[in-house]
Amino acid sequence: MSQSRRGGSQMAIIGAGSVGSGIAFACLMRSVVSELLINDFNAEVCDGQVLDLQDAAFVSNTKVRVGTPKECGQADIIVITAGARQRPGESRDELVQRNQDILKSVLDGMQPIKPTAILMLVANPVNVLTCMAQKFSGLPPRQVIGTGTYLDSIRFRVAMKERLRVSESSVHAYVVGDHGDKQVAVWSSATVGGKPLLSFEELHGLDQDEVSHQVAHKAYKIIDLKGATSFGIAAVVSELALCITLNKLSVIPLSTYCERFDACLSFPVSLGTNGVENIAYPEMNEKELALVQASAEATRKVCSAF
Ligand SMILES: NC(=O)C1=CN([C@@H]2O[C@H](COP(=O)(O)OP(=O)(O)OC[C@H]3O[C@@H](n4cnc5c(N)ncnc54)[C@H](O)[C@@H]3O)[C@@H](O)[C@H]2O)C=CC1
Ligand SMILES: CC(=O)C(=O)O
């Protein structure tokens, strides 16, 4: 059994824009690690974010400072948010060329990366970038993860929570596959209190496709309204960092290589200090499985180029 490593652990965040600074703030408030390193190739923005975060650190047990790429490569958890964000109406997939180039330069700048580090991809398209980082980081695949459909699964659970009047943590439901337009909400095996989700009276007559579409398009709505999403993903990453530092082995949908589909996709995994321990594929009906297979095919095609 591995030791958890919260005491003395370091986390690096590459990219100090809306998402990187949100993640830093959430991790600071929850004292997830003992030291946070922040890096951005825009040195002024980076210095500004760090000075601001240092003002907030009086309520935290975490110290925060600017880190060089090489220092960040030696952190226990390395979170990559560096990358272009979607413009209103733009899909995550359309970011691929710009963000592949940025990821390549970020990985090169951090080498050699600490052999026990957990590398966490946040920048989009997250499945493709996770696949790329698994190939080029030099780390074992189990230590290279993407935030995948964790945020989408939370959005799905919140949509159900509001209808069923139960807490989101009581809704055992997953969005799997793509963190993007091809994501699949697995209705068929979702449960609440051990009872199939779809058997609840409150959900009779519910248009499942409509709810799935709203969940998948929530990011577009937020981007239309405020230009970027940041708080949801910040909470997600702080929770993942806690899972890693405390070796919680919580089952969370994340981007990882899925042998069953021969592609980097997001499926529930148990996550601990050593990264991904096991993958659990939820039961899916024919329609759900076909949609996952289509998204695996699309991801494989993009990833075969590198
Ligand atoms: N996985 C998820 O659930 C989510 C992913 N995202 C993704 O996160 C990424 C970042 O989004 P925002 O923070 O809103 O964008 P942003 O534009 O606010 O920040 C990006 C930052 O990356 C920096 N950067 C670019 N290249 C760099 C390099 N080579 N080294 C260091 N820093 C570099 C930029 O200077 C900028 O400060 C986007 O790709 C976005 O789509 C956003 C929200 C949720
Ligand atoms: C932008 C993005 O990927 C999200 O909020 O889901």
TrEMBL record:
Residues 11-146 form the Lactate/malate dehydrogenase N-terminal domain. The chain crosses the membrane at residues 12-33. One of its GO terms (biological process) is lactate metabolic process. PROSITE patterns: PROKAR_LIPOPROTEIN (PS51257). It comes from Podila minutissima. SUPFAM superfamilies: LDH C-terminal domain-like, NAD(P)-binding Rossmann-fold domains. This is L-lactate dehydrogenase. Pfam families: Ldh_1_C (PF02866), Ldh_1_N (PF00056). Coiled coil: none annotated. It comes from the Eukaryota.
